[in-house]
Write a structure and sequence with these properties.
heterodimer; A: 458 residues; four-stranded antiparallel sheet; B: 294 residues; two-stranded antiparallel ribbon
């Protein structure tokens, strides 16, 4: 009698285990498309017999030990790095490829303007006193100045746009860091109850991936079950249940572009160096302070050098108005910002006769033009180098992007294979749990009938 | 390897997007004909392309300058032809009227004709192309000869660059060939001397101008020969600049433009690849247990 009642009791427990298996499969199916979700699987175990009956241990059914996530730790450890590398190179490539000012065939671009300016000089050399040709030279010089101005402005606009992007990303990073610190705390509390908080673990892993992709931070688990996030330069972004805060501040040493600051959980603030960040934020800053800044500086140097060389020749010539010692371009005293500043000297702009084509002052003397034309090669080579160097940088970033994304996609495919939900598999598992549940129900019914038979004994 | 539904959809998304991107790239290349639009498309070609574009512009400008210079030289040659005719006519008059059989009236009439010739020559030598006096050297902003026939221009010669570092003269030195600087005769002065001799009815003095007139004819002929030779050089340089410009265009196109057959082939391949990706994707979506468990 007592064993039949025990059979009913253990069947009830077994029903619960199979019901949990069915619920787990259902949970998996419902989260089949949830990003970062790892399929869960119940761990069932036969209940250890405690009673010896007639010289044998009679089994006591099945119990639910736990519900665990399917995660491959080896893969999971590699994923933050792959996400960070792909995000960094992708952000850098996108930023560099957004600039059209350096396209070789851009209408009104540097190549056109440089060609037009030296062509106008060459045409004037045939008839240096010709007013129309002189006007054309001044117009093309103005066009060259504007092309420098416009190209420098577009490069600067691209860098400023990356400043605004960095400010937005910093806000996202701070929100994710705070949420991750809170999840570290919640998971510690949940684990104190003895069960694995699988869905909290999934949420924390999603934030880990997000922070890795945004900042290049690596994940460092500790003995308390926390996942701490450490920036590439060593700064702690998330430490247990405390999160640092990123901020932005104008950097005068970098033309007023923003620098990223890290305010640690204990309130200390420091400015992060360029190598201290990775991921999307690091990639965008690398584009801003790398190829874009180099192109801007090289353009400034080209404007300063070419403008300076043309000025030196022009000062030695004589205008139709008899003026001499006058600059052709106003470029300023230093190379920094020269491409933004360069413009035709106001006196030359106001009167084309002030353009010093000759060395003697005679209307037909174009001796000074030959010297002005000798600057053409320097200008052409300089411009070619700027475009080529920028192309190499953008192409290199794009190659790294392709490689990084391939590596990321490969690891994510492996992660999906290990942790993802297969609808077919879960349907089979659910059916399997349903059959087991039905079988246990049959056991209960049989035990009930046996008990009834026993109770009917008179 | 476990294959999950999310993996199937993710692979389908990525593969389809990649195929679409390749099709988009192939379509852009085929429709624009351009292989290098941005510096990162081919950095090495971009650097060369800048040189090609500038060189093309340089040759075009050079050709324009050379053609203008050749036009000016043609005008100069035409003017020198008129001067040569005038000096030859003066030479004829000098030969004819140095003969003692002619009367003072005949010589006075011839003197008036020579005066007309002098005016014509001065007018011809003050000819302009546009606003430019072509016989003034680099002092081309004012008439090179005043009313008396005195030269007001300078001793410089204008030139034009026909290729980097190589210049060809585009003006005739009136100071040398007409004024006689450096050992020649002053043609206008000789004509004035003849006019005076005719007015003075002095056959000996008339005869005395014959050598200088012959030298003058020779000087003008040499000036024309030089102008003609330089015109030929300029014509040849203009043709060479045109060819060089075309070559730069061709070389630039080789760097930046796609081969049409290659582009069409890549476009066809990209279309097929996208069709295959879409077909494979739709098939993989169809195979699931959900379709059989009803």
């Amino acid at each position: 009698m007592s064993s039949l009642l025990g059979l009913l009791a253990q069947s009830g427990m077994s029903l619960g285990a199979h019901s949990a298996a069915s619920a787990t499969a259902s949970h998996n199916l419902q989260n089949a498309n949830t990003p970062g979700y790892a399929r869960q699987r119940e761990a069932l175990s036969a209940v250890i017999p405690s009673e010896l009956v007639g010289g044998a241990f009679v089994g006591r059914g099945v119990e639910l030990l736990t519900i665990a996530q399917a995660r491959d730790r080896f893969l999971e450890a590699q994923i933050p790095g792959a996400l960070a590398a792909a995000a960094s190179s992708s952000a850098e490539a996108e930023a560099l490829r957004s600039v059209a000012a350096l396209d070789p065939d851009a209408a009104g671009g540097m190549v056109d303007a440089l060609g037009a300016f030296f062509s106008s000089l060459r045409q004037l050399s045939q008839d240096p006193g010709n007013t129309s040709l002189r006007t054309a030279v001044i117009a093309s010089a103005q066009g060259l100045g504007h092309a420098f101005n416009r190209t420098a402005q577009e490069l600067d606009d691209a860098r400023v746009a990356l400043d605004r992007s960095a400010e937005g990303r910093v806000a996202s990073i701070n929100a994710a860091s705070a949420a991750m610190a809170e999840l570290n705390r919640s998971i510690r509390v949940a684990r104190a109850s003895g069960a694995e908080p699988n869905d909290l673990l999934d949420a924390r892993l999603r934030l880990r991936d997000e922070l890795a992709a945004l900042t290049g931070a690596s994940a460092v688990p500790d003995g308390d079950g926390n996942i701490n996030m450490v920036l590439p330069g060593g700064g702690s972004l998330v430490g247990g249940d405390r999160a640092a805060q990123l901020g932005t501040t104008p950097n005068a040493a970098n033309g007023g572009h923003v620098a990223i600051t890290l305010r640690s959980a204990d309130g200390q603030t420091r400015t992060l160096t360029s190598g201290s960040l990775g991921g999307t934020l690091g990639g965008e800053l690398a584009a801003r302070d790398g190829a874009l800044a180099q192109a801007q500086a090289a353009l400034d140097a080209l404007a300063f050098d070419v403008g300076g060389a043309l000025n030196a020749v022009h000062r030695g010539g004589v205008g139709l108005d008899g003026s001499t010692g006058r600059d052709l371009f106003s470029v300023g005293a230093t190379a920094a910002g020269a491409a933004r500043r360069i413009q035709v000297d106001p006196a030359v702009l106001a009167d084309s006769r002030a353009f010093a084509a000759s060395s003697s002052g005679a209307t037909g003397d174009g001796a000074n033009l030959a010297a002005l034309l000798s600057v053409e090669q320097q200008a052409g080579e300089g411009l070619g180098r700027i475009l080529s160097d920028y192309g190499v940088a953008a192409q290199g970033a794009d190659i790294r992007r392709q490689h990084g994304e391939a590596q990321r996609d490969h690891l994510q495919a492996l992660r999906e294979s290990a942790s993802g939900v297969s609808i077919d598999e879960e349907l089979i598992h659910m059916t399997q749990a349903q059959r087991a549940y039905e079988a246990v129900m049959r056991v209960i019914k049989t035990a009930d009938e046996m008990l009834g038979t026993l109770m009917e004994l008179k | 390897m476990r294959v999950t539904d999310r993996m199937i959809f993710e692979n389908a998304r990525r593969d389809t997007m990649a195929a679409r991107q390749r099709l988009e790239d192939a379509t852009r290349e085929a429709s624009t004909g351009m292989r290098v639009t941005h510096p990162w498309d081919d950095p090495a070609a971009t650097g060369l392309l800048v040189q090609r574009r500038l060189a093309g512009a340089r040759w075009d400008a050079q050709r324009t300058s050379v053609e203008r210079a050749a036009d000016e030289l043609s005008v100069a040659d035409s003017a020198l032809d008129s001067v040569a005719n005038a000096v030859s006519r003066a030479q004829q008059l000098a030969v004819q009227l140095s003969n003692a059989t002619y009367s003072a009236g005949d010589r006075a009439g011839a003197a008036r004709e020579v005066q007309g010739l002098i005016s014509d020559v001065i007018g011809t030598l003050n000819r302009q192309v546009g606003n430019r006096y072509i016989f003034g050297g680099t002092a081309d902003g004012a008439p090179p000869f005043d009313a008396t026939g005195a030269y007001q221009g300078d001793a410089n010669v204008r030139s034009v660059e026909v290729m980097p570092g190589v210049n060809v003269n585009t003006s005739v030195r009136a100071d040398v060939y007409l004024q006689g600087s450096g050992g020649g005769v002053d043609v206008l002065d000789t004509l004035r001397t003849l006019q005076a001799a005719l007015e003075n009815n002095d056959p000996a003095a008339i005869s005395g101008t014959l050598d200088d007139l012959a030298t003058g004819v020779d000087q003008v002929a040499r000036a024309r020969a030089e102008a003609g030779a330089n015109t030929l050089l300029l014509d040849s340089a203009a043709a060479a600049a045109r060819v060089a410009s075309d070559q730069e265009v061709v070389a630039g196109a080789a760097l930046s433009e796609v081969d049409v057959i290659d582009a069409a082939t890549r476009l066809a391949h990209a279309e097929r690849a996208l069709e295959a990706a879409l077909a494979a994707t739709s098939r993989s979506f169809a195979k699931t247990l959900l379709d059989t468990l009803r």
